[in-house]
Amino acid sequence: MTKSRKQKQKKQDFLRKKLKVGKPKEKARNATDTSFVSKTISIRNQHLDQNPHDLTKRLTLLKHHNINVRKETLTTFQKSIPSIIKSRLMTPLLTQSIPLICDESQQVRQGLIDLVDEIGSHDAEILKLHCNIFVLYINMAMTHIVTQIQADSTKFLSHLLKYCGDEVVRKSWVKLLNGVFGVLGWGQVGKNDSASIVQTKKRNAKYVTIHLNALYTLVEYGCQDERARSDGDTAETTEDSGTLRNPYLIPDYPQPFEHLKLFTRELKVQDATSSGVNATLLSLATQDIDTRKAVFIEQFLPIVRKKIEVIIKEGGECGKSANKLKTLLAKIFD
């Protein structure tokens, strides 16, 4: 009996039932009833955005794989700077956006430059607080394997010097000079010239002009005080540089004893001479103008004067920038 009943049930699955007039079609046994009405649907771990203007959730988009998303995110933050300049969002914003100095897209890098200009025009002190991170990634860009990233590195340096030049030259005077020499292809003291970029006439003159202008600004901030930059009076500068200032005055900048490195740990450089890095210069504190000028005269000035003479003879925009740099060097060191 049981076997015959199962056979009948199996046969019913393959039989087409006759529809009767006036009666609806029967529903399947596994049909789901969707006729219920609910006022709310609760989904775990999913919440509606209560504040559509909250920019903290956009920070992760700065690491998005799409170039347009990164660019649009930088533009959004740039437009929002006036309203968030005094908020706690600035620190994570700069921490997430500064690595874009080495971004593969030129549009993203230009968007970051515009963002830095917008922040600096509202409050330059914020850029000064993140000066170390800026210098770190600028140095990385100067030695980057991609030529375009390397060429744009001095753009970031020029814009950073415009808002916090004194902070930059005090902390990384020698490193930045070595980096600018590298992108110009001039070779540095203690290094092989073939290791740097070879300077040829085929190189884009536009980028050479940008590099020379960045070097001009770096030397201007590193070897001149604020009064000399504004007035252009060299006599007062040389007179004041030799006088002993009151050591008990409140310093003009934060962390005046940072160069002593009392609470920092540094990695030991093994065989620094063989690697081509002058460890003495890199560890030298360049807090004052006199020290920076002495380092520049001893290590960099002869090379700069030799190279700019060649560029001046070639003429063009590069020649103008080189002549401008030559005038500055004569004003400071002659």
Secondary-structure blueprint of this entry?
Blueprint: H1 2-12, H2 67-84, H3 90-97, H4 106-122, H5 124-129, H6 131-142, H7 147-184, H8 205-223, H9 226-231, H10 234-241, H11 279-282, H12 289-314, H13 316-333
Helix pairs in contact: 2-4, 4-7, 6-7, 7-8, 7-12, 8-13, 12-13
InterPro entries: ARM-like (IPR011989), ARM-type_fold (IPR016024), Ipi1_N (IPR024679)
Protein name: Pre-rRNA-processing protein IPI1
Region (Disordered): 1-32
Number of helices: 13
Q: First CA to last CA: what distance?
A: 119 Å
Characterize the main sheet.
Answer: none
* pLDDT < 50 stretches: 189-202, 233-243, 271-277
**Number of E-type strands:** 0
Supply the helix-strand structural class: mainly alpha
- The sequence of SSEs as H and E is HHHHHHHHHHHHH
**Looking at the structure, what is the overall shape?**
elongated
In what range is the share of β-strand residues?
under 5%
* Cα-atom radius of gyration: 32 Å
| Approximate helicity band | 55-70%
Arithmetic mean of pLDDT: 80
